[in-house]
Amino acid sequence: MTTVNEKPQKISLKRIHYALMTNEQTETWGEVKTLTMPISMTLTPNFSEAHLDAGDRVVDQEAQLDSITIAGETADLPTDVLVDWYGHKKSAEGGIITNANDTPNSIAIGFESGSKLVWLLKAKLKPGEETNTTRKKGETSYKVYPFGGEALPLIDGVIKHTVDTRDVGVTVTAETFFKAVAKPSETVETP
Fold first, then answer.
1. pTM of the complete model
2. I need a labelling partner for 131 at 20 to 30 A (CA). Which of 25, 28, 72, 123 fits?
3. Mapping DSSP to helix (H, G, I), strand (E, B) and coil, where does residue 31 land?
């Protein structure tokens, strides 16, 4: 019997990293940029499923990961991030031009959560609902910037790369993992 070492996972979302996909055919990315004030990030896997019914029962079941839905919030989304993520244009006055023809750019988006380091290698994001309200007497509130989207598979099917820095033999740190976006390589297990 093999015992698996279970450790509690500390929850914290430290930073969000992203890089524009510069070439979708060769699957390469540009410079990594960092947002330092994330609030939340939720990943929901989406599966295609099929069941085979025979003899009045289910005799087989298949499930395949299709994509991962991304939902998040940050304390700020600077102008450059809005241009990078959503395909908006900058105006001569330094503002954002939102056009009906804007299409989101393909990006890699990564984050640090506790001891987990995660890259979603090809994602397309869209802005969330923007709320603007008048401050009421005696109340203080903050404006947050929600976003959502999908992480899609690369040509070889890879969607996500996760490293747990608590695992034995892991030498990767947040600084090295998020220095550049790269496709992960598989290890070959020896029997």
1. 0.83
2. 123
3. coil
Q: How many CB atoms lie within 10 A of CB 80?
A: 10
Whether 106 and 158 have beta carbons less than 8 Å apart is answered as no
pLDDT tens for residues 27-80? Answer: 999 999 999 989 999 999 999 888 888 888 887 888 888 999 999 999 988 999
Task: Mark 175-184 as b/e (b = at least 16 C-beta within 10 Å).
Answer: eebbeebeee
Tokens matching residue 62 = 């298949």
**How many residues are recorded in the chain?**
191
Residues paired with residue 53 on neighbouring β-strands, in sequence order: 58
d(CA 129, CA 137): 24
Residues 124-163 pLDDT 10s = 999 887 776 777 777 777 788 999 999 999 999 999 999 9
* CA–CA gap between residue 78 and residue 135 (Å, rounded): 23
The sign one gets for the Cα dihedral 21, 23, 25, 29 is negative
Distance CA 68, CA 163 (A): 17
